[in-house]
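Design job #97: recover the sequence.
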């Protein structure tokens, strides 16, 4: 059976979410050695999966060290910035701190 990119990324996410859930259950036991979760190997269809995002030349990215979303650290998407009112206030405070002191002492 052949999988499209969307299906592969879905399988990737499901695999890592299952692993994270097993780890959380283990953490709930206080990391007891006798309740250590069994490591499930990566499904064979996901071995060697590449990022695939297009770089500036228009070629697909060939990195295989992927994050939870199935993209490499360079193509995971940019931060959208702070969303909470506290985060926005901190960002504004940091901005004013940056420009409040002279860059050169002279």
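Job complete. Output follows.
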């Amino acid at each position: 059976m052949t999988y499209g990119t969307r299906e592969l990324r879905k399988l990737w996410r499901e695999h890592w979410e299952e692993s994270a859930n097993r780890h959380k259950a283990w953490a709930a036991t206080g990391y007891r050695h006798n309740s250590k979760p069994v490591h499930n190997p990566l499904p064979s269809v996901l071995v060697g999966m590449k990022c695939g995002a297009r770089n500036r030349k228009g070629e697909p990215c060939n990195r295989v060290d992927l994050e939870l979303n199935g993209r490499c650290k360079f193509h995971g998407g940019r931060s959208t910035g702070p969303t909470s009112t506290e985060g926005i206030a901190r960002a504004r405070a940091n901005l004013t701190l940056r420009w409040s002191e002279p860059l050169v002492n002279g």
